[in-house]
Amino acid sequence: MNVTTRKISQMIKDIIDMEELNAVIETVKFQQKFLRGLQTASARGAFRIGDTVSATGRNGSIEGEITQIKRTKAIVNVNGTRYDVPMSMLKMIRSVA
After folding, report:
1. Minimal CA–CA distance to 62: which of 88, 87, 40, 91?
2. What's the pLDDT tens digit per position in 12-46?
């Protein structure tokens, strides 16, 4: 944890009013959503149909080929089974480009 994060954590611990705490929570949620959007946009530009990718989920690791790209997810074909995977979870193995 860096110095700024420690300061912020301490400032949050010092909050004693629920209204103020709720305002901080809303700000954090907004920033988290913004950063996820940036991450997804970056990932969307990095992948193309036909790329071989891997992803790790609850059931272990999968490796397959992207067959479709949606707004925030990609359809990955793994041995005939199609998985709807968030692009932020994908890692490039081999690019078609």
Report:
1. 91
2. 999 999 999 999 999 999 999 999 888 877 777 78
The model carries a pTM of: 0.64
Note the pLDDT tens digit of each residue in 57-92.
888 899 999 999 998 899 999 999 999 999 888 999
Q: Which long-range contacts (CB under 8 A, 24 or more apart) does 51-56 make?
A: 51/92, 51/93, 51/94, 51/95, 51/96, 52/92, 52/93, 52/94, 53/85, 53/90, 53/91, 53/92, 53/93, 54/90, 54/91, 54/93, 55/83, 55/85, 55/89, 55/90, 55/91, 56/89
Q: At 82, is the secondary structure helix, strand, or coil?
A: strand
Q: Which residue has the tokens 């999968």?
A: 62
User: Among all chains, which residue has been given the structure tokens 């059931």?
Assistant: 59
**H helix runs in the chain, sequence order:** 3-13, 18-46
